Amino acid sequence: MDVLVPFDARDPNSRLAPVLTPDERRAFAAEMLADVLAALDATDADATVLSTASVACDASVDVDERPLTEAVNARLVGADGPLAVVMADLALATPAALSRLFGTVGDVVLAPGRGGGTNALVVRHPEFRVDYHGASVRDHRRGAERVGATTAEVDSFRLATDVDEPADLVEVLLHTEGRAARWLHDAGFGLRTGDGRVRATRD
Asked: What is the mean pLDDT of residues 113-123?
């Protein structure tokens, strides 16, 4: 399975600005990318990082400064066979979750994110194009219908959890021991319980 992993190398995870400096956000994003690539490497995936700038990682890198929708659609036009897109901030992704995504039958297979996004997808229909603006999972369902493509959805906690808000750090600390989790621990983050909620706090 050929897989694109979009990555913002310039200003990643801007919504983590309340808890991380710009340099910290870049470092943390690189660790999440490494976790995603490691999970993909344990499947049959051939991953290419689609990055806004040059980035050092364990995969081939294709630099494209265009907006996400335009950059991905340019690859779909020339795709020779199925093409998957897996976001770089899926720090909880596992080989099992990704294999389930890749193995699901459908012209367009969607892994919805919380809040209406599309965290991963597989495209097997030559006329389907992505649209990452707004409630993209709804737009992708409609886009598939317009071109007569069959759709399927993968209900996966690990693929639905993209890490782009301070509250999402709890999920990384609770559910993975990967590089992103180790980076958070080294940066002084930990878990605090109380009043029925778990929070990520920093020493």
From this structure: 96
Residue linked to tokens 């992505």: 130
CA distance 192 to 203: 11
- Give, as one character, the DSSP assignment of residue 173: H
Domain presence at residue 130: yes
Task: Give the relative orientation of helices 22-41 and 179-186 as an angle to the nearest 10 degrees.
Answer: 150
d(CA 13, CA 146): 32
pLDDT recorded at residue 69: 97
CATH number reported for the structural domain that contains residue 8 in this entry: 3.90.550.10
Compute the C-alpha angle 64/68/74, nearest 5°.
Answer: 65
Confidence of residue 196 (pLDDT cuts 50, 70, 90): confident
Tokens for 19, please give them: 């808890």
CA-CA distances (angstroms) from residue 58 to 19, 47, 54, 130? 27, 9, 13, 26
d(C-alpha 17, C-alpha 180), whole Å: 17
Number of folded domains in the chain? 1
pLDDT at 195 over 80: no
C-alpha torsion angle, residues 97, 102, 106, 110 (rounded to 10): 50
Q: What range does the domain containing 152 cover?
A: 2-164
Distance CA 141, CA 117 (A): 12
- Cβ contacts of 194 within 8 Å, gap of 6 or more: none
Encode 82-100 in three state secondary structure: CEEEECCCCCCCCHHHHHH
